[in-house]
Amino acid sequence: MRNLILVAIGLAGGALIVAASHSIWHQSGEQDTAVLGVLLTDAGLHQTVDAARDSRGFSLETREQKAKAELDRAAPASTLAERDTKSLDSLQSDLSKQVSNDSMGRAIPDVYSSMVKPRPRPEKLTTPELYESFEGDSRDESWAYPMELGINQYIAERGGVYGAAFEYVECRSRYCTIAGVVHGGGQETVNEFMAEMTQSGWWQTYGGRSTVGSRNDTEYRFVSIIPRAEEDTARSESAAQSVQKGTSNKAQSADS
């Protein structure tokens, strides 16, 4: 009896073990199936996403291709305009170079050249420049006073003959300035009495002068600048030294 009970217990325990094993195996299989389903689902999802990406990429690529095609169709017109512009610029540059090359070595005719080319300044000072030198001149009383006295006495004696009067007479150290009027005469009259005056014994200059004048209906007004020495008329110091040297050589020749 006791043995039967043990056998029954053993059979019952075995049945429980088999049932438990089956249950565990079944649950493991379900879990594996579930995992496999998840994996399959995930793979399908990825496949779906990849397909969507492929579809979107294809769509974007298609739009880009369309835009590029439109630009390609528009490109020839812009390229042609740019090419025409470059061609025009190149043509203008070539023409400018050709005109420049054609002009090089050519000289403007003399009849026009004299109108536009700077004229060389004269070696001697002009009347306005001489007067500017006079204004900056200091006074040498030993020379200026005898010159002023002689000029005034001369015009007082000879002015009526020429219809001339001096209204301003001043000498300094290197220049004298005379301003006056001639009635019924002109520059020729001024030249005549000036030449006569410089022949006077009291005259103490080399004999040159520079005169400007203005005429109206009845009279001629003038200003004469009288340099003391010829070098006082030179524009530059080197020219003055050259004139002075030439004058000295002439004096030595005359003495010999």
Residue-averaged pLDDT? 74
Major sheet: size, sense and barrel closure? 4 strands, antiparallel
N/C terminus separation: 190 Å
Rg estimate, integer Å = 61 Å
Count of separate DSSP helical elements:
6
The total strand number stands at: 4
The SSE string, one letter per element, is HHHHEEHEEH
Q: Strands of the biggest beta sheet: in what spatial order? A: 1-2-4-3
Envelope shape: elongated
Structural class given helices, strands, pairing? alpha+beta
Strand content: 5-15%
Level of helix content?
Answer: 55-70%
Describe the structure.
The chain is of the alpha+beta class and 256 residues long. It contains six helices and four strands; from the N terminus they run ααααββαββα. It has helices at residues 2-103, 110-116, 127-135, 141-162, 187-197, 237-255, and strands at 164-171, 175-183, 210-215, 219-227. A four-stranded antiparallel beta sheet has the order 1-2-4-3, sandwiched between helices. Helix 4 (141-162) crosses helix 5. It starts with a helix and ends with a helix. Mean pLDDT is 74; it is low at 17-43, 54-60 and 247-256.
